[in-house]
Amino acid sequence: NALEDDRSDDFQWGPARQLLSGENPYRSFVESGWSEPRITNAAGNNTPPNYPVTGYVFLAPYAALDWTMAKSAWAITNLFGAGLLVWAIWIIAKPAGQTARFWTLAACLLMLSSSPMREQISAGQHTIFSVAALLWAWILGQRGCRWRWISMVLIAASWLKFSVTVPLTLAFLIHRRWR
Questions:
Q1: Class of residue 79 by CB neighbours under 10 A (exposed 0-12, middle 13-18, buried 19+)
Q2: CB-neighbour burial class of residue 148 (10 A; exposed 0-12, middle 13-18, buried 19+)
Q3: Residue 46 needs a FRET pair 20 to 30 A away by CA distance; which of 32, 98, 169, 176 works?
Q4: Are the CB atoms for 12 and 55 separated by under 8 Å?
Q5: Per-residue burial over 110-142, b = 16 or more CB atoms within 10 Å of its CB, e = otherwise
Q6: Tens digit of each residue's pLDDT, the chain (179 residues)
Q7: Nearest to 124 by CA among 97, 161, 149
Q8: How far is CA 150 from CA 71, 86, 88, 136, in A?
Q9: Rg of the chain's alpha carbons, rounded to an integer?
């Protein structure tokens, strides 16, 4: 689904591509006089810039690709992110015993096969990647972890989907995972 012409409609490739070419996507949007009351296609939904500029900087490598390749690359990133998300859940849950491992695995498989997860990938959403980055920041932010410095980079990457991960970052700060 993500590779169809009318999908990956929430990817924000258009504004990232404008920023990469030196344009201000916000100014371009305002100056275009956009007046569609309802967006009904992928191209239209990728036009309005509704993320902070840091998100578009992060998406720049994808914006350097043409639309077809960018959708493919982002779908692969989301699939990889889904795997990292399951792995992170497994590490954080630390299921002890055969029954706990079975139910943790069952819950992860249910999540992966659910309609919301498939829709995240087909719509080109950023939530899978962002939550996976946040959970790995949590894991790598543990005292004594030699990769601890990466946790701050992952927190910054997770803010691509700021509506989900910025509030969850408070837990990261409260538990002092950055020190």
A1: middle
A2: middle
A3: 169
A4: yes
A5: eeeeeeebeebbbbbbbbbbbbbbbbbbbbbbe
A6: 556 655 556 678 888 888 999 998 888 877 877 666 555 555 555 667 778 888 888 889 999 998 888 888 888 998 898 899 999 988 888 888 888 888 888 888 888 888 787 777 777 778 888 889 999 988 888 878 888 888 888 888 888 887 777 777 787 777 665 55
A7: 161
A8: 27, 19, 15, 9
A9: 18
CB under 8 Å to 142, separation ≥6 — which residues? Answer: 148, 177
- pLDDT digit string (tens) for 2-31? 566 555 566 788 888 889 999 988 888 778
**Full 3-state SS string of 20-34:** HCCCCHHHHHHHCCC
Angstrom distance (rounded) from CA 12 to CA 6: 14
Joined together, the tokens standing for residue 135 give: 């959970």
Q: Which of 23, 72, 25, 24 is nearest to 48 (CA)?
A: 25
Structure tokens at 57: 């900087």
pLDDT at 2: 57
Amino acid at position 163, single letter: S
Q: Could you give the C-alpha distances from 87 to 126, 133, 148, in angstroms and in order?
A: 18, 12, 18
Map tokens 């296609």 to a residue.
41
